[in-house]
Design goal:
single chain; 322 residues; alpha+beta; D-amino Acid Aminotransferase, Chain A, domain 1; Dna Ligase, domain 1; 7-stranded antiparallel β-sheet; 6-stranded antiparallel β-sheet; 23% strand
């Protein structure tokens, strides 16, 4: 059975976790560049310098003595997102839709008291949600208001678009949707939905939640496929720029579509997961091999985007062996 599974993985050009680490992350991502994406504050700074829109930063909490100042920082804005600067997997993020004195109302409607918020901030600072459990900072930033095109297929939280960039070329993308199970967060491992996106036109295809393929959002019961992501070439260009600004040859870039401010980059990831292949029903190796077959080192930005829009056109999803 094991040999059959391995054969199936090879046939469908599926990238496994070991291959990702050994053949893509290790040779293409220098460890000295990891902090550029592991630290969201630094990523935000680099993106702004490169002219890439990001959510506005309202404030940063660095010390326990500042933990009680969240309401003071956020009160002029009422709505905000609180997150660890070095967090991963969506852990520690709280999105607040209103501030009542020293209390906070989450998008779910739950009220968080001032002591509970201070406790949560203290946990962030202690490194509870950060990579390697290192001491961290708490970021207070603009709370994204998702584009109405997602009204029918999301639940409470904000959808985002994950684009995998290899040697500067966008090679695969998916829409990540919050659900009740994921507590309104667009994280697949928490129960969110991944929906594959056709690279040549930005139209959604197949959905996956956990180990199951899905055609409809479980809360809204609306169809996931056939939805056009607006300004698709622009999103591909925003993702591709991260190859230049952070020096990572294999990177995942997360983009949100705000109803007022348009597309913005939330963060980048030097170790993007491989579940995107299931959402697209296609192995990543089928895409990276096309990039490797050409000398793309001299590609201008227009060349990269043109490649991404045309190189994979005509591919059809294939049932994967699991």
């Amino acid at each position: 059975m094991l040999s059959a599974l391995v054969e199936g993985l090879g046939k469908h050009r599926i990238m496994g976790i070991n291959a990702r680490n050994r053949d893509f992350i290790l040779p293409n991502n220098r460890r000295r560049n990891y902090p550029l994406v592991d630290d969201k504050l630094l990523t935000k700074k680099l993106a702004i310098e490169a002219g890439i829109p990001v959510p506005e930063l309202y404030g940063v909490v660095e010390f326990i003595s500042q933990a009680g100042k969240i309401a003071e920082i956020a009160s002029p804005h009422r709505q905000f997102a609180l997150k660890p600067a070095r967090g991963s997997g969506g852990g520690g993020i709280i999105v607040v839709k209103n501030v009542f004195g020293q209390s906070f109302q989450k998008v779910s409607g739950e009220i968080v008291s001032a002591p509970d918020m201070q406790y949560h901030v203290a946990n962030i600072l202690s490194g509870m949600y950060s990579l390697k459990s290192a001491a961290d900072k708490a970021i207070i930033e603009y709370a994204v208001k998702f584009d109405p095109i997602f009204d029918e297929i999301t639940y409470q939280g904000v959808p985002d678009i994950r684009i995998i960039v290899y040697k500067g070329i966008p090679v695969m993308a998916m829409l990540r949707l919050p659900t009740r199970k994921s507590d309104g967060k667009a994280n697949l491992h928490k129960g969110g939905i991944g929906v594959g996106i056709r690279m040549h036109d930005g139209v959604t295809m197949y959905g996956v939640q956990g180990r199951s393929f899905v055609n409809e959002h479980p809360e809204t019961l609306h169809t996931l496929a056939g939805r056009q992501i607006p300004n698709w070439p622009q999103l591909l260009e925003m993702a591709s720029k991260f190859y230049d600004i952070v020096g990572l040859g294999y990177v995942g870039v997360d983009i949100v579509l705000d109803r007022d401010k348009g597309p913005m980059v939330l963060e980048a990831n030097a170790r993007p997961g491989i579940a995107i292949q299931i959402a697209n029903r296609r192995g990543l190796l089928s895409r990276t091999e096309k990039v490797d077959a050409l000398d793309t080192s001299g590609f201008a930005m227009a060349d990269r985007i043109d490649f991404a829009l045309h190189a994979y056109k005509g591919e059809s999803g294939t049932e994967l062996p699991f």
